[in-house]
Amino acid sequence: MTADRARPRIDWGVCLLLALVTFIAFLPALQNDFVNWDDDRNFLDNPDYRGLGPAQLKWMWTTTHMGHYMPLTWMTLGLDYRLWGLDASGYHLTSLLLHVANVVLFYFLAVRLLRTATPSRAGEGELGLRLAGALAALLFGVHPLRVESVAWVTERRDVVSGLFYLSAILAYLRACEPAAERETGQERWYWGALGLFALALLSKSMVVTLPLILLLLDVYPLRRLGGGPGRWVGRAVWRVWLEKVPFLVLGLIGGVLAVLRGISGQLLASTETVGLWKRAAITSYGLAFYVWKMVTPVNLSPLYELVPDRGDPRAWSFLLTGAAVLTTTLVFVLFRRRYPALLATWVAYAVTLFPVSGLLQNGPQIAADRFTYLSCLAWAILGGGGALACWRSWAHWPGRKAPALAMAGVAVLAIVALGFLTWKQVQVWRDPVTLWTHAVATNPGPMAHENLGVALAEVGDLPEAVGHFEEALRLNPDSHIAHIDWGVVSARQGKADEAIRHFRQALRLKPDYDVAHGNLGLALMNQGEIPEAIEHLQLAVRINPNNGKARDNLAKALALKPKPIEPRLEPANGDPAQPRSMTAVTPSP
């Protein structure tokens, strides 16, 4: 059997193995429920996405629900509702299957890039290359850092955008094949890559950096740019730059719209809240943090909260990570000619992380596991490339079988260890109480305590919930959310006065928060304070016309409002049949 005929059979076997290992590592996700970390607002309390009818599709393609524009991701979720209703296991199955597809796609991408970066010598064959690609795919696919993107239904956008992102890069590589290897219709691969990039943008805006990744690939390993005089500008390379223009235009449009949505949705922190030095410190911290967690994937948390004592640029944690990032960058630059893959990996990693870095601080976190779904692809390929280099160097040793077997054993043990950690980490997302209990244990912060308190209240453990609200307010006395949640629990405990006190305190901290006005209005209505209740409920509806609960409670309060008693004047002659006399009676002298 020739090598060309054997390749598809090898690939089919490798893909089947990759799919099986990845599916098993994430299998516990099928037993998980929705969690109170945006799943409630996205699915449980959101009827707009449920289905694929005209009304649902219109909403999906026009909404920026919670600050995100992702119509294709919403369509997959609408299909889930058609198939599973609100059975969370079906949603998890879809996310897992999409992730498995991404692992298989990444295998082909890794093989192609490794072949281009490290051409084989005569007689070396393709086995080592495919084993290296499989290792890279598993380093990506079964790593515990992938759990948040796969086991959290809200993050469906990661696996959907990843599918189009990887497909776009593969199509681009086909379009850039050397002229001797090109097939007919090669331009279609280029336009296919552009179309796939557009689909990725319609799934999640974080993929906006793909044009820069394509430029980086042109430098290394494709070597279409750089490498000598005339290789950056001039007629010889003008087409390489020109073909990026459509990608750059799409990326620029997607990036600007994402920033505008972040500003309008109050997702992006202002410079007054997070200064420039603090943003730089958070960015360097994230660059070092993800690499560290990639090497030591333990104590992962759903929320690494950015609290005041973690945000000081002068803190040792930020100074050390800043020094580490600068040193790493300098070393990779100095050794760029001898080891170009190191600098290429570092640049790809930093560029992909840029949209979610501290420079564009988004949300309450200093870092998030989900941000590594695309950014750590380059590191996985570097790991596969290192294994391939060892394989090829040992191939010429007289006793090459021993080191090759040792390397294979280490690789298998690493994948088994990562798969075991992933299996355990997936179970952290089983339900809200399990999730936030883990978060409080691994990375305690006010939001983690607030969310755990809410989860405990949902299962009826009200005293324990109050304890976590107290701890949240101890860590952050300005948390209006903790006051609102504590007020709700107090109302359920029959402590009406305490509930009203917490709602009023929440309004002192955030006067324009519709939920606080709505809850205070309801509490006052239950206490018989109808006029003041109506005032707060009207404010809630005015601030947020979509607050359906406040509208319903306002209608009930207005129905309870006392009506003025109309005066009934007695006729002068006492006969009800006669017209009333409206003339004043003048006393006789």
Description:
The chain has 589 residues and is an all-alpha fold. It has two domains: 3-178 and 185-428, no CATH class; 444-560, Tetratricopeptide repeat domain (Serine Threonine Protein Phosphatase 5, Tetratricopeptide repeat), CATH 1.25.40.10. The chain is built from 26 helices and two strands. Strands 1-2 form a two-stranded antiparallel sheet. The longest helix is centred in the N-terminal third of the chain and has 30 residues, at 88-117. The chain is elongated.
Domain count, please report it: 2
Task: State the order of secondary-structure elements, H for helix, E for strand.
Answer: HHHHHHHHHHHHHEHHEHHHHHHHHHHH
Report how far apart the termini are: 134 Å
Assembly level:
single chain
Strand order of the largest sheet: 1-2
Number of strands: 2
Strand content: under 5%
Number of helices, where a helix is a run of at least 4 consecutive DSSP H or I residues: 26
Uncertain stretches of 5 or more adjacent residues: 574-589
Q: What percent of residues adopt helix (DSSP H or I)?
A: 55-70%
* Structural Rg: 30 Å
Biggest pleated-sheet summary: 2 strands, antiparallel
The overall average pLDDT, rounded, is 88
Shape summary = elongated
Structural class, from helix and strand content?
Answer: mainly alpha
Please describe the topology of this protein.
Elements lengths: L2 H23 L13 H6 L9 H9 L8 H14 L3 H30 L9 H15 L5 H5 L4 H20 L10 H16 L8 H10 L18 H5 L2 H20 L11 H20 L8 E2 L10 H19 L5 H14 L11 E3 L4 H4 L1 H18 L6 H28 L3 H11 L3 H13 L3 H14 L4 H13 L3 H14 L4 H13 L3 H14 L4 H13 L29
Helix pairs in contact: 1-5, 1-6, 1-18, 3-4, 4-5, 4-8, 5-6, 5-8, 5-17, 6-17, 8-9, 9-12, 10-15, 13-14, 15-17, 17-18, 19-20, 20-21, 20-22, 21-22, 22-23, 22-24, 23-24, 24-25, 24-26, 25-26
